[in-house]
């Protein structure tokens, strides 16, 4: 009796192990039970796939919008800029009219961001230069104090003194003999309404731009 009982338990365990390692189709044929777990897994895979596709499309729109606006800024603020050119000429006083007239000359809608520059301005113009510098190429001599100084000027497009011909900008003197670099920093806001075509809420962007 014990031997028969042991054989039955062994056979039952063998069947359980065999059933455990069966494929969903074999389990369905063995018991005729619908593979609900398989359907649930397939549903999860479908949901994850749809989410990945939507994320990829959304990310593609972000990248495209950023690249298009980067190219736009280069054409607006760099004189005679060409996509295939290795470099472009930066005109200090030619950039300001472009910046101030941005709402009129740009096809896209951009907004100035105030409060991010010097003394709460929208744009910061800064020059870094050596405290003392004298270079004489003829005599192969130079006298430079390595201590670096920085002068910054804030420009606000909403004020009358922000034009290149008036105000502090007109008195902003560049120390060419000891100049290290000149940088202009400002930010612009934009809204990507193309996302509406995909039934998504428009994305808002803030571009931090540095011209040096």
UniProtKB/TrEMBL annotation:
Source species, domain of life:
Eukaryota
Domain Mucolipin extracytosolic: start-end pairs:
62-211
- Return one GO MF term: NAADP-sensitive calcium-release channel activity
Could you state one GO cellular component term attached to this entry?
Answer: lysosomal membrane
Identify this protein by name: Mucolipin extracytosolic domain-containing protein
- Species: Oryzias sinensis
């Amino acid at each position: 009796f014990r031997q028969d009982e042991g054989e039955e338990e062994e056979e039952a365990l063998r069947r359980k192990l065999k059933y455990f390692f069966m494929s969903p189709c074999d389990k369905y044929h063995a018991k005729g039970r619908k593979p609900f777990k398989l359907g649930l897994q397939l549903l999860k895979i479908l949901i994850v796939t749809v989410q990945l596709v939507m994320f990829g499309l959304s990310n593609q729109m972000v990248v495209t919008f950023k690249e298009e606006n980067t190219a736009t800024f280069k054409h607006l603020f760099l004189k005679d800029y060409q996509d295939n050119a290795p470099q472009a000429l930066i005109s200090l006083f030619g950039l300001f009219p472009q910046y101030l007239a941005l709402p009129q000359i740009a096809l896209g809608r951009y907004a100035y961001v105030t409060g991010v520059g010097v003394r709460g301005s929208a744009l910061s113009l800064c020059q870094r230069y050596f405290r003392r510098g004298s270079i004489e190429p003829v005599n192969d001599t130079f006298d430079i104090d390595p201590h670096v100084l920085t002068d910054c000027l804030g420009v606000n497009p909403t004020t009358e003194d922000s034009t290149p011909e008036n105000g502090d900008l007109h008195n902003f003197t560049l120390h060419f003999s000891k100049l290290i670099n000149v940088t202009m920093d400002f930010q612009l806001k934009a809204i990507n309404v193309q996302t509406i075509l995909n039934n998504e809420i428009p994305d808002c962007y803030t571009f931090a731009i540095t011209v040096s």
